[in-house]
Automatic annotation (TrEMBL):
Recorded GO CC terms: plasma membrane
Name recorded for this polypeptide: Branched-chain amino acid ABC transporter permease
UniProt topology in membrane: Multi-pass membrane protein
Keywords annotated in UniProt: Cell membrane, Membrane, Transmembrane, Transmembrane helix, Transport
Protein origin, superkingdom: Bacteria
Subcellular location: Cell membrane
Pfam families, per the entry: AzlC
Protein's organism: Cohnella abietis
Protein family per UniProt: Belongs to the AzlC family.
Keyword flag Cell membrane: yes
Example GO BP: L-valine transmembrane transport
Annotated transmembrane regions: 20-44, 56-78, 84-106, 149-169, 175-194, 201-220, 226-243
Amino acid sequence: MSQEELQVKSPATPRNEDSFIQGVKDCIPTLLGYLSIGFAAGVLEKTAGLSILEIILLSAILYAGSAQFIAAGMIAAGSAATPIMITIFFVNLRHILLSAALSPYFRHLTPFKNMLVGSLLTDETFGVAINKVARRNQLNEKWMHGLNLTAYLNWIFANVAGAYFGQWISDPEKFGLDFALPAMFIGLLILAIVSRKKVKLDVIVAICAVVIAVGVAFVYPGNVGVIVATVVASTIGMVIEKWK
């Protein structure tokens, strides 16, 4: 049997960068964002009247930063359960798009294993994963579990810490906790731009997004401009890239 046949028939040795431990390591840069925002969420949830156990369950089952902020605010305002669930449902619809973007890299897995990967996917872990895709054009199940589980456990811990210690922190923004999450996404964006090596195109898309967001804000106040800018600017970037 030739050497080439032996290489084909022998199982591939998993690379260190695809291991569970490497997934844990790759999640570390995002932990500060999770800690700060999770801490702030815990403070808000405790202020809304939730117990420590309820906050643990909310963080473990819902596991969505923006949705938990909304839920805590609506609970504090005395909203009924149905409006809270409907609001959270629409806020979290974006996760369908995030999962769809990564699904081609896990087609070989069973539906159950795909569910395990997708159920713990967040905006932050998606950002790390898509950055890895830009560099290697592949993802490994074990690496993804390391990334997801590290973020998941850190988020629960941050929420509980915020609920417990929040009684001594009246103004989380005083410590810059409100900027930690945007700062983390800025870092992930820069890493993605550098790894893609298409700086000119990315700068054009960024400028288009800012111009559109500011322009729409004059007509429709609120976050509508951000949504419109995201859709239109990304479409412009795709058309330019395909045209080239």
